[in-house]
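Now for our target.
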Amino acid sequence: MLTQRSEGLRRLLLFCQIWITAGLFWVGVWVMVRFYSPGGELTWRRYSIYCVLLVLGLTLEYLGRDSSRDYPLQTDLLREHRVSLRQAVASIGTLVIYLIATKDGFISRVFLFNFVPCFYLALLFSHHYLPPFLARRFFKGIRREKTLLVGSPARAAQLRNWLGQKSEIGLHTAGLISPETFEQASDLPILGQFNDFDRIVRECGATQVILLEFPRTESDRAIIDACDELGVRLIILSDLEETLRHPVVHFEDGGFRFMALREEPLENPLNRFVKRAIDIVVSAFVLIVVFPMVSIIIWITQRLQSPGPLFHKQVRAGIQNRRFTIYKFRTMHLAHDRIAHQASNRDDRIYPIGRFFRKFSIDEIPQFWNVLRGEMSIVGPRPHLLEHNAEFAKLMAGYHVRAFVKPGITGLAQVRGFRGEARDNSDIQNRVACDLEYLENWNLSLEIGIILRTVAQLFLPPQTAY
């Protein structure tokens, strides 16, 4: 019910904005013809096409918006500005694309440049004033739901802000039915206990009940049956995240409903294609333009300070913990037997100029070959030695989840300063938390942002870089 009301309010707002857009457009056309081109003739067909394109852009922006995060009654001027600006850009952009594609030069540029700011302001005012007006118009009287909460006072207190928001779309909270005997909770009166449920519903005229946790006892199930008998709408607040101590994702497939512990945007083939395209373009550029010159410089410095092979090869854990050979410019002396020991500040295994290469991540350049081969990505969780993987997994239960995606040359943890030696458990937890955040919230802007921040850190490396 609540979702339908919120979605309905969004659609009503869009419907009103379409009429506002059309009305403002035709008023602007009338003013242009009447006062600025008195001898001109209004071409209805052409301007009707322009008006339809503006409405089409407005509709496309609405369809592309995340409805779960778009609550029209949220009074936030910054949010209203962002949404209005997106709508204006989408509408005007659709019109401009049409004008360019058809080489249509008929529309008045003076009209267009005057219409755009007025259009944005009209959208901004509509976002600020229309939703409360529409809510008062459609969610009053018999559409006002008198709601009872059933559960603990502590749980009810968590819903205080949410209940305040939903009151605007007709959800009026009458009180709480709780097994605990307190006078009130979260400014709500406790009306009785579970045994009094039928009587309380009839006395207060409740039309809706919110069960504050999944039914686990016979008394909980009795309340569900009683709601059906009394003709009362029932909503159950999920407490699975608290029970599992982890966020959950709900989805439906093949007629079955499932729950998972996380979203994974990179399971979308289109997202993977975009990410792979970035990997190929950037890695090809680095290997063709940067790699040859740097290889010569590093080879000469190695001959002077630490003769031996140009590259250092190691077996690392990749996607799904599959093994692959990673390539780096060698920055350590050959005569050491602490292969699995993490490099630290002032590590005596590193030859002098090798410290400079490591600090500015120059030794990582050969890994673009791993990227080109598809074993790594430019952005992703850093690949660790197999020995380190086994060690870190003992410290954090969800450590191996990071292997759901390809490892990267850089990552969210690295640009936030979590790089270098992992000294304690908190270092590992911070890095894994960043890796999981990247895995669950991947998008193109995040990918490009990490790459740009990594480029900036090449010139101003953090203190943890060594």
